[in-house]
Specification:
The protein is an alpha+beta fold and 441 residues long. The chain contains 17 helices and 22 strands. The chain is 39% helix and 25% strand. The strands form six sheets. Strands 4, 5, 18, 19, 20 and 21 form a six-stranded antiparallel beta sheet that branches. It has a four-stranded parallel beta sheet with strand order 8-7-12-13, covered by helices on one side. A four-stranded antiparallel beta sheet has the order 14-17-15-16.
C-alpha cells in the first residue's frame, strides 16, 4: 500500500463532486478561523487535502531520526572532550560555557523538528535542524483534527483507519520521563514554559500549559526575566520552578543574557531541570551542515553514518575569506543557496535561481563575510494537491518540506508546509497541510 496511491484516491473522490466538497471546504475555513491555529494572530493558511502517510513511511522516518540522533550524540561528545573541535563552531565564551555545563540528565536533544525534503524511501535531504524553540505542534494537530471531519476523509474511513500524530500530550509525557532522570528531581515538578514575551507562539504555549495541568502538574507561561533565583531555588513569583520547558532560542538567550542572569545561574547550578539544554545548539546552528562533512568529523562516525551524511546532508561551506568561493557561487547561481548561520523561519535565506545575475551578485556582496554559509541547492519534491479558489477547484503541484518531530529521541509526529516557491516558509508564501496516517482495515 503506497501513500501516493491513496492520495490519488482522495483526488478522485473530490473530483466526483466539486460543488459538494467546495461547500465542505468553506466550512473547514470557518472551523480553522475559529480555532487557535494562528500565525502572528491570523488563521494559518492551509490546504483542504492532507498529506497521507503509511506505516512504511513512518518506519522510514524512525530510521532517519534514529541515525541523526546517533550522529548528534557523537558530535556532542566530541565537542565536550575536544577544545580543538569546539573551535569549529566559533561560539562565544558564554555559549561555550553553557554548552559545557552539566545539565543533569543524559539526553542531549530532548526535542527537535528535523526538516527534510522527502521523496519517499531513501530519497531525502535535510533542510534545517530545529532543536531549541521547535514549534508548530499546535498548528498541525488543530488542523488535522478539523480535516479528520472533512467529507472526503469521512468517506475514506470506510476503507481505512485514519489517525493523526498527537504532539501536545505526548510531549508532556516525554518531558516528564526525561525530568524523572534529572539529578535533582522531585515527585511532582512545577513546570514553566519559558520564552521572551513577543518571541514565541502564545496559542501553542497555552495548549502545552493546559496539557501539563490536565496531567496534574502546576504549569505557568513565563518570560525568563520574571524568574528569580534565591537560596538555590528558581522562582516565578512565589512558585518554585522545578522543570523549565525552554522555548527561548539559544541565540536570543545569549544576546539577552544580561537580562536573565537569575535563570542562567540556576541553569549552571542545576537548580532547575531545563528541557532542552543549551547543548542542543550544537545541532541547531546551521554551521553543523559544514562540520558534518569535515574529514575529522567523519572519522569518529561509523560507515553507515558517513554515507548518510554524504547522501542526505547538503554540502555546505563558510561564505567568507576565499574569493574563489564567492566566484563559484556567482558563476553557478542555480546550484547554490546562501543562509545565515543562526536565524530561523528562513530569514535571510536566498536561493540563486530566484535571482537574475545582477541581483544575485548584489545579494552575495551583502552576505559576504557576514556570518553566512554557502550550501548546495536542493530541489524540493512536488506533490499534487487540491486547491480551492474563487474560480473553483484546481489540482496544483506544490513543493513541500516535512518536519520530523523527535521527542526524547523518538519519532512522535510530523509537520508539513507546502508552497509554490523554492523556499517554503512563512516569509515566502506557504500553506500548512495536516499529516495523517492511513492503515487498511
Amino acid at each position: 500500500m503506497k501513500a501516493s496511491n491513496i492520495s490519488k484516491e482522495y483526488l478522485e473522490i473530490v473530483k466526483k463532486d466539486e460543488d459538494r466538497y467546495y461547500k465542505d471546504y468553506e466550512q473547514t475555513v470557518d472551523a480553522v478561523a475559529n480555532s487557535n491555529a494562528k500565525y502572528k494572530g491570523e488563521p494559518i493558511p492551509f490546504l483542504y487535502q492532507p498529506i497521507i502517510f503509511t506505516q512504511e513511511d513512518i518506519d522510514n522516518f524512525k530510521q532517519i531520526g534514529k541515525t541523526l540522533i546517533s550522529i548528534t550524540n557523537k558530535v556532542v561528545d566530541k565537542y565536550i572532550e575536544s577544545p580543538k573541535f569546539r573551535k569549529k563552531f566559533g561560539y562565544s565564551k558564554l555559549l561555550e560555557e553553557l554548552i559545557l555545563a552539566d545539565h543533569g540528565y543524559d539526553i542531549n536533544v530532548p526535542i527537535g523538528r528535523f526538516d527534510i525534503f522527502y521523496g519517499g524511501g531513501d530519497n531525502f535531504k535535510f533542510c534545517e535542524l530545529n532543536t531549541d524553540g521547535s514549534s508548530a505542534m499546535n498548528e498541525d494537530n488543530t488542523l488535522a483534527r478539523i480535516i479528520l471531519d472533512s467529507k472526503p476523509i469521512v468517506e475514506m474511513k470506510e476503507k481505512y483507519d485514519i489517525n493523526y500524530f498527537e504532539l501536545i500530550y505526548s510531549w508532556v509525557e516525554e518531558s516528564i520521563n526525561i525530568y524523572n532522570t534529572f539529578d535533582n528531581a522531585v515527585d511532582k515538578p512545577n513546570v514553566a514554559i519559558v520564552d521572551f514575551e513577543g518571541s514565541g507562539t502564545p496559542a501553542e504555549f497555552e495548549e502545552f500549559k493546559k496539557a501539563y495541568i490536565d496531567k496534574g502538574y502546576n504549569a505557568v507561561i513565563v518570560d525568563p526575566r520574571q524568574l528569580k533565583y534565591n537560596n538555590g531555588k528558581l522562582y516565578f513569583e512565589d512558585m518554585e520552578i522545578n522543570l523549565v520547558y525552554r522555548r527561548i532560542v539559544t541565540r536570543e538567550l545569549v544576546d539577552r543574557s544580561d537580562e536573565i542572569q537569575d535563570f542562567i545561574q540556576a541553569y549552571k547550578d542545576k537548580a532547575v531541570c531545563v528541557i532542552g539544554p543549551i547543548k542542543s545548539q550544537i545541532m541547531h546552528n546551521k554551521i553543523i551542515f559544514k562540520i558534518l562533512h569535515d574529514e575529522d568529523t567523519l572519522e569518529f562516525l561509523n560507515e553507515n553514518e558517513r554515507e548518510y551524511i554524504k547522501k542526505h546532508v547538503p554540502y555546505t561551506i563558510e561564505f567568507e575569506n576565499d574569493r574563489e568561493i564567492f566566484n563559484e557561487a556567482l558563476e553557478n547561481k542555480d546550484r547554490y543557496v546562501v543562509k545565515p548561520r543562526d536565524l530561523y523561519a528562513s530569514k535571510g535565506v536566498y536561493v540563486g535561481r530566484d535571482f537574475n545575475e545582477e541581483d544575485w551578485r548584489q545579494k552575495l556582496e551583502e552576505c559576504w563575510e557576514h556570518d553566512y554559509l554557502l550550501q548546495e541547492f536542493c530541489q524540493p519534491y512536488k506533490q499534487e494537491l487540491v486547491q480551492f479558489k474563487d474560480s473553483g477547484m484546481e489540482v496544483n503541484k506544490f513543493n513541500h518540506i516535512l518536519g520530523l518531530f523527535m521527542y526524547n529521541e523518538k519519532l512522535k509526529g510530523l509537520y508539513t508546509r507546502v508552497g509554490s516557491n523554492n523556499i517554503v516558509s512563512g516569509l515566502h508564501g506557504y500553506y500548512t497541510v495536516p499529516n495523517l496516517l492511513f492503515t487498511e482495515k
